[in-house]
Amino acid sequence: MNLILLAPEEITHDRLARVRDPRRLAHLREVHRARPGDRLTLGVEGGGIGRGELLSLDEHEARFALEEMGQPPPPALPVHLVLALPRPRMLARSLEHVTALGVKRITLLHTRRVEKSYWMSPELAPQKIRTHLVLGLEQARDTRLPEVELAKGFRPFVEDRLPDLLKGRRGLLAHPGMPRACPRGIEDPTLLLVGPEGGFIPWEVERLLEAGCEGIHLGPRILRVETAVTALLSRLF
Amino acid sequence: MNLILLAPEEITHDRLARVRDPRRLAHLREVHRARPGDRLTLGVEGGGIGRGELLSLDEHEARFALEEMGQPPPPALPVHLVLALPRPRMLARSLEHVTALGVKRITLLHTRRVEKSYWMSPELAPQKIRTHLVLGLEQARDTRLPEVELAKGFRPFVEDRLPDLLKGRRGLLAHPGMPRACPRGIEDPTLLLVGPEGGFIPWEVERLLEAGCEGIHLGPRILRVETAVTALLSRLF
């Protein structure tokens, strides 16, 4: 927790913030070992970043006196990530990685090799997803939550949603064996598509290429989804 | 397990391989759902990669008839990674990520902000470390195990070991706030140093820069060690 992310309703008009949830209180006590008088980095959800002085901390509440909160959050990556739904634990970690890296739009997609049971996982509950996004923001000192949408059918996604997503974006399909190596240091608005463990099936690859995506690869090594997504984002941007 | 990694002693002279450990047998049965007659990708530790036909599979043993095993493993990254010892779970995942990415030399280093208790973790037992390296190799279809060494003192490492490591290698110190952005797509033999959660302390940074390392950064976002290491390796090479 390199930043304490405050919901707007946790801030009162006299520049006082009250944090009451057990997770952040435990972290302040046990990891930060914070004491009244300490100045910590805070950010307002969707807003600015600054410092606050800890006024009091007990098991029920931490109170901060906020100072200037005008620093903007770090820049976002110009990417909309379309990720075949990973298995639940991999999903949790992948959401944290990509949020920390600065992704702001995520679509979780069904593909042939996504196990149908993954769509029933409690990890997909909005509150659970939000927990992982917040962890990523707190790690990277960011305040702007990514938007996450679910696309539970591959064909409806490709036919109804993909054409709009590709307007004004460069579509990159990351898939082993594609002819072109992943480009480096691009600045274009990008739609990045990453398949599941086991990859997209050939029919899916054909549909995505037909829709206008460029196929790219990361070399001969087969990477886990969470490693591949981090490696792709870091190499691309 | 995209490759079944065979120890040399698991191969008999008649090109037969026998796999008997419960982990791989369970994976073959439950994930691959392998049946006699299936042809799977196998590799010999430190050697070549090829295919083998599954002859039999029960709870005690899988037998394979090996075919041509002459394909070389994927190229290694030209890097020696020096990583401040992460907390045990992060260590396990980081070893898997960097092994999958092709790192072959890893030094785990003590620094001021590494908790001393981490050095007592059972995760540092050679057999435990090996388990994570093997998982990384199996993921990436590689056969060559990385070497992992422990450097339990920062000052002895800098004074006695670092000068030799920097002979013929470009030293890159990844640390927030360094003046230069992480370079992209280099091919130089490299020594990459990555600090702990919380970073190297200023005294450590000075010693490493004095020794000839270049300071590089990954931007304003503070990343978890496992995310940062993957992002650095992917951007550098």
Automatic annotation (TrEMBL), chains A, B:
Presence of keyword Protease: no
InterPro entries membership: Alpha/beta_knot_MTases (IPR029028), RsmE (IPR006700), RsmE_MTase_dom (IPR046886), tRNA_m1G_MTases_N (IPR029026)
Reaction equation(s) it catalyzes: uridine(1498) in 16S rRNA + S-adenosyl-L-methionine = N(3)-methyluridine(1498) in 16S rRNA + S-adenosyl-L-homocysteine + H(+)
Alphabetized UniProt keyword annotations: Cytoplasm, Methyltransferase, rRNA processing, S-adenosyl-L-methionine, Transferase
Enzyme Commission number: 2.1.1.193
Pfam family, one: Methyltrans_RNA
GO annotations of cellular component type: cytoplasm
GO MF terms, alphabetically ordered: rRNA (uridine-N3-)-methyltransferase activity
Enzyme class label: transferase
Domain of life, per lineage: Bacteria
Domain annotation Ribosomal RNA small subunit methyltransferase E methyltransferase: ranges: 76-236
Keyword Methyltransferase: yes
Primary location class: cytoplasm
Localization of this protein: Cytoplasm
GO biological process: rRNA base methylation
Record NCBIfam families: PRK11713.5-4 (NF008700), RsmE family RNA methyltransferase (TIGR00046)
Known function: Specifically methylates the N3 position of the uracil ring of uridine 1498 (m3U1498) in 16S rRNA. Acts on the fully assembled 30S ribosomal subunit.
UniProt family annotation: Belongs to the RNA methyltransferase RsmE family.
Protein name as catalogued: Ribosomal RNA small subunit methyltransferase E
Record organism: Halomonas campaniensis
